[in-house]
């Protein structure tokens, strides 16, 4: 359930504050950034770290099994790769 919630919550700050479609606001090659963009990136990073740390703490406390932790880490990797791929290709739209 935590993974499903994080799939929805982790990208929200970046979508609201960090993605304006302009080249200056993309993660790669960024030259101009505002405080809102930085806040969006911070909240996205905070959420992403929390979505990995909470299951790790639960596995350490033996509340969940190691298999559940590995499955959650794989899901977090897929989510992160999806966000980075989306940002990379959306920042390259101007070149086509």
State the share of residues found in helices, binned by percent. 55-70%
What is the ordering of alpha helices and beta strands? Answer: HHHH
Figure out the total of helices: 4
**Strand count, sense and closure of the main sheet?**
none
Radius of gyration: 15 Å
Tell me the distance between the termini: 39 Å
Number of strands: 0
Number of domains: 1
Residue fraction in strands: under 5%
Mean pLDDT: 77
Task: Enumerate the spans where pLDDT stays under 50 for 5 or more consecutive residues.
Answer: none
User: Shape, please?
Assistant: elongated
Content-based structural category: mainly alpha
Notable features of this structure?
96 residues; mainly alpha; 70% helix; 4 helices
């Amino acid at each position: 359930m935590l993974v499903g919630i994080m799939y929805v919550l982790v990208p929200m700050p970046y979508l609201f504050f960090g993605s304006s479609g302009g080249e200056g606001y993309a993660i790669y090659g960024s030259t101009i950034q505002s405080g809102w963009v930085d806040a969006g990136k911070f909240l996205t990073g905070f959420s992403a770290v929390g979505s990995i740390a909470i299951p790790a703490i639960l596995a350490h406390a033996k509340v969940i099994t190691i298999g559940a932790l590995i499955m959650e880490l794989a899901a977090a990797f897929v989510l992160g790769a999806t966000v980075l791929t989306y940002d990379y290709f959306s920042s390259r739209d101007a070149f086509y």
